[in-house]
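Chapter summary example: a protein plus uracil.
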Amino acid sequence: MTPQEIRNRLEFFRDLGIRELWVDRAAAPASAPPPPVAEHTPMPKPPANPIPLIPLAPEGDTLAAIQADIGDCRRCKLCEQRNRIVFGSGNPEARLVFVGEGPGADEDAQGLPFVGRAGQLLTQMIDNTMSKEGMTERRADMYICNVVKCRPPENRTPEPEEMEICGQFLYRQLMAIRPKAICCLGATAAKALLNTGVGVMKMRGNWYKWRDIPVIVTYHPSYLLRPYNQNAKREAWEDLKKVFHFVYGGK
Ligand code: URA
């Protein structure tokens, strides 16, 4: 990588509001393939030939600072059709963070994550499981956010470029909160944090790590709303029980 390419990469992260970077040179491939060419030119544009740069949260980073850096974001084409940026909601000192995919229509209208049908199911699952397990915390004690903060048109899956740009803010949110565990809701969240294309069915029930934080993967609540996925619902309940006992069980 030439000094100019390094400079471009650093400028890319600086434009995203990231002021401190850690370069994992050992993980850098000898010749990384160029990223796919996008039709839409995002702002800022990721430089060609990236090497893995792992951004750390700026010293003393806070959710408020991250939200301010997002501002009225125009960094990717998701800005064109969104009504509201959905940053995240819940306890900024949460011990457990849920990460979904991206806002749907209700979230886009209200500016809050998981408030539509899938969100109501998620709330029910969290609150009922906690209550059944004899634990006092509820959804409001946790933090919930998404990989992308703007609604993808027709609720399509976010594209890699959108995930890369918005993912930097997700990483900062997670670093600022530093929860005891993270629960990925669905494949997009798992891909963003664990960089895997393995399906949820295979990943669920096991522990992984994002940086040094334990991660569990379970089904997205939208998937559980489909009537033929009732078995998955039972499995999701098991996953929640597991993560709740890990996070809140031994306090
Ligand atoms: N689905 C998501 O992934 N996130 C939301 O906020 C709502 C629905």
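Key point: The longest strand covers residues 213-218.
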